[in-house]
């Protein structure tokens, strides 16, 4: 029966795309690769033993609740897991302290800190992460990329990085706010920008 169902789904598969499907029992017993958080309770609550790799994870809480501390501990654990990879800290909040990171046990020679305008400007930051799309001038359709992004470089193996941290979303300047006049009221600019950006 499973083979017949798989053949049915294959009939909807286009030549230029891959249709992903599998039986749920094939996942039973498989471990989800993760980076420990340094909190036994949180690792246990997350079921997979830490922060699952390849996912977007958001720490949420009031100022001073330990969000940056948790990211520093994740950096330390990511470094212990892979002794050659980089960790990238995009510092929009100007919160990264190399001395503090070293005291927590992080190897600061393997942490790349991105700050300044590139970290604060939402458009520039996410173009750096996702790449710049290439637009056809006649049809205005996107046909690939004009410039590769950081995730493309990591996927291609040109950059060895196993953790990217953005601290924090609240400090990001959304593109429409960056170009609008002072005092102009625009509702939910950051929320609208992040919704489409995270989908990409």
The neighbouring-strand order within the major sheet is 4-3-7
Q: Unreliable runs, pLDDT <50, ≥5 residues?
A: none
Tally of DSSP β-strands: 7
Q: What's the assembly state of these chains?
A: single chain
Distance between the termini: 36 Å
Per DSSP, the total helix count is 9
The rounded Rg comes to 20 Å
Mean pLDDT: 87
Structural class: alpha/beta
Per CATH, the class of the domain at 61-199 reads Alpha Beta
Structural features, described:
It is built from nine helices and seven strands; from the N terminus they run αβαβαβαβααββαβαα. With about 200 residues, it is an alpha/beta fold. It has a domain of about 140 residues: P-loop containing nucleotide triphosphate hydrolases (Rossmann fold, 3-Layer(aba) Sandwich). The protein has a three-stranded parallel sheet with strand order 4-3-7. A two-stranded antiparallel ribbon has the order 1-2. It has a two-stranded antiparallel sheet with strand order 5-6. Helix 4 links the parallel strand 3 and strand 4. The longest helix has 15 residues. The chain is globular. The two termini are about 35 Å apart. The relative contact order is 0.11. The model has no long low-confidence stretch (mean pLDDT about 85).
Task: Give the tags.
200 residues, Rossmann fold, 7 strands
Layout of helices and strands:
Blueprint: H1 2-10, E1 34-35, H2 40-45, E2 51-52, H3 67-81, E3 86-91, H4 98-103, E4 111-114, H5 117-120, H6 122-130, E5 132-135, E6 142-147, H7 150-156, E7 161-167, H8 175-179, H9 189-199
Parallel strand pairs: 3-4, 3-7
Antiparallel strand pairs: 1-2, 5-6
